[in-house]
Amino acid sequence: MSRAIASPEAMDFESPGRRDYFVKVEHTTIWAHHLIPVTVIVGPGAKPGRGLVAIGSTHGDEMEGPVAVKHLLREIRTEDVLGRILLIPVLNVMAFRANRRESPDDGVNLNRAFPGDAKGSVTYRLADFVTRFVFPQVHVVLDIHAGGEVARFPETANVHWMKDPAQRRAMEETARGFGTKFIMVYQNQTAGLLTGLAEDLGKISVGTEMGWGRAVQARGVAMSRQGVLNAAVRHGLLRGEARDAMTPPSEQVMVDTSDPASNFLAPCDAVFEPTVGLGEKVARGQRVAWLHDYNRIDEAPLELTAPHEGYIICQAWNSRVIQGQVITQIGKPLEWTR
Ligand SMILES: [Zn+2]
Q1: Ion ligand 1: residues, CB < 5 A
Q2: How large is the average pLDDT for residues 257-283?
Q3: How many A from CA of 176 to the centre of ligand 1?
Q4: Rounded to the nearest whole angstrom, what is the distance from the C-alpha of residue 259 to the centroid of ligand 1?
Q5: Of 214, 240, 256, which one is at a domain's C-terminal end?
Q6: Model confidence at 3: pLDDT above 70
Q7: Residue 65 CA from chain centroid, whole number
Q8: Please, is 9 exposed, middle or buried when counting C-beta atoms within 10 Å of its C-beta (0-12, 13-18, 19+)?
Q9: Is pTM beyond 0.90 here?
Q10: Distance 209 CA to ligand 1 centre (A)
Q11: In angstroms, what is the span from residue 301 Cα to ligand 1's centroid?
């Protein structure tokens, strides 16, 4: 397979068939381009503005997405594609090469840079490419993240709570297709998110957390792959049937972590000692962690207790946590949208 090096303007999103591109995003310091791998597969039933994009490596040190989408490059057969499918195994190539969350070129977190800026630093230019060239082609946006070196999550598929019940239901159903136990409704205060812009544009927008620690974890890869395939089938873009979920639908749980009370911030630099397991159900008042301040080694550790019943959805990965860091989240069980 040979990849054509193309400017964003030269990409063909309409003709039936498959194109594998390296899309050029200009380097801001030297005479060079960053080359973003983008595969476009168009089937006979493709409609304008309708399609799916699966994205890996919005953050450069989260590996399940890049691995799953790279497998899909070889697994999705063009003859099975009915609509439009875009596969971007590594979006943030600068951060990926550096094995870092953010791009070393400008220190910017791509998932805070949307909608981007064509005249900004390279990460803003990359966001601008997605906003102006990718988003207009699709109505389903899957952004596959993991915890990197920041946090551990049980595998989750994530949505924001949408006012429009039809969009909310479609996002929940698409999220459930990943086969994770937890579907997480997360806070919508952070500016510049890829998924946040996509849903503001009315798209079915799902993020994930599929592992942590810069590792490649088998369940996270399998769920990422399944989530993309199920979404493509569900939305009429790929022939076939939705695959068996790794977690039976009856065992899936929707949890809400959007309440600030569900998120513990470290009050000081400390060593974080979780006392319950990831994904575990906890009762109100149950101890979930100790925080040890080694500048006050003879003082008792600070006890963190659950403010409400729920599930442990996030824990800091490194034991060393900094003042103000989100160190654990307790998801409140939530009803599915009917
Ligand atoms: Zn991420």
Answers
A1: 59, 62, 145
A2: 96
A3: 19
A4: 20
A5: 256
A6: yes
A7: 8
A8: exposed
A9: yes
A10: 7
A11: 31
